[in-house]
Amino acid sequence: MFTDIFNRYDWEDVKANIYSKTAADVEKALSSSKRDLNDFVALISPAAVPYLEEMARISQQLTLQRFGNTMQLYIPMYLSNECQNICTYCGFSLHNKIPRKTLTNAEMLLETAAIKEMGFEHVLLVTGEAQQLVGVDYFVNALQLLRPHFSNISMEVQPMDQEDYETLIPHGLHAVLVYQETYHQADYKLHHPKGKKSNFQYRLETPDRLGKAGIHKMGLGVLIGLEDWRTDSFFTALHLQYLEKAYWKTKYSISFPRLRPFSGGLAPKVEMNNRELVQLICAYRLFNQEVELSLSTREEEQFRNNLVKLGITAMSAGSKTNPGGYVVDRQSLEQFEISDERNAAAIAAMLKQQGYEAVWKDWDQSFCQ
């Protein structure tokens, strides 16, 4: 289990190592033909900031070699804002007195029709973490209902047991996104004081349970802003490296959610500016040429445009972060505010203008039959 590896590292030692890297370490990492985790540490360090242009050039080259001029498009469908956890940064948190809503079958189909009209074949189902209301039975029903309408269904819901994932996969579950939020154990506890999510260990081992269940793809990441982003990114890369060896049949993606405003919101403990996010994206690409890198509508329009050629391989578009947000209940409370409000057609046009092809479908369930 990853826990065994994780426990060999001390947060402060890792942080000190990152901030001690020199220009020579960065130049060695840039010139290497096969980069390791130590090279990744150099590339995310402050010492790498002056080398950003060269990192971006190499990142663009490697991304084109592996993925071509393509960008996968996906859209989230929020099914429920019910949640039994208290999270200091989330609008769905239990202590937030907001109207709660869970979509019915009829409402899911209304949302589906709206999403299909935009052209999407890849959908990400999202819920709060409320095991009794939106548990395995609810997800089985949702997958059975939605599978005929989409080529690819991913989920971002509460971590589950291995047998739960084994139940959902045959019903069409393709990928699961599970973010650790932060690998800093003490701060993790501060931000998750109540609910099942407060169990750091259970969340840390979720990718192991997914790998053992045989999931096709899993998404990793941290919520940037909770702790030092460089140190959190080291642990994410360490986790990715371990998973790729342990569950080599599974594909992996990394996302870069930066803390966004929400109702009663939390100010970021650590600010990450745009140049630093570019540095992190390029560092991941130089470290790992196979991993998919995803960028959501949390980021601003112009910034997303500029990132298209620097390593990103998947983008969300036209997103709503509230249950029923596309047609059923447009005014219900959002989980967080989005920054890029362009619709899917506008994103596809932007990609075309940059010489990229918007990919609406790159998977079919018949591949597994």
Largest sheet: 8 strands, parallel, barrel
Spatial gap, N to C terminus: 30 Å
Outline the low-pLDDT stretches: none
Mean pLDDT score, rounded? 93
Characterize the overall form. globular
The Cα radius of gyration reads 20 Å
Percent in helix? 40-55%
The count of helical stretches stands at 15
Query: Total number of β-strand segments?
Result: 9
What's the arrangement of strands in the largest beta sheet? 1-2-3-4-5-6-7-8
Q: Which structural class matches the secondary elements?
A: alpha/beta
Task: Note the run of SSEs as H and E.
Answer: HHHHHEHEHEHEHHHEHEHEHEHE
Strand content: 5-15%
Structural overview:
The structure is a single chain. The chain has about 375 residues and is an alpha/beta fold. Helix content is about 40%, strand content about 10%. The protein has helices at about 1-5, 10-20, 25-30, 35-45, 50-65, 105-120, 135-145, 160-170, 185-190, 200-205, 205-215, 230-245, 275-285, 300-305, 345-355; strands spanning about 70-80, 120-125, 150-155, 175, 215-220, 250-255, 290-295, 315, 355-360. The longest helix is centred in the middle third of the chain and has 18 residues, at about 230-245.
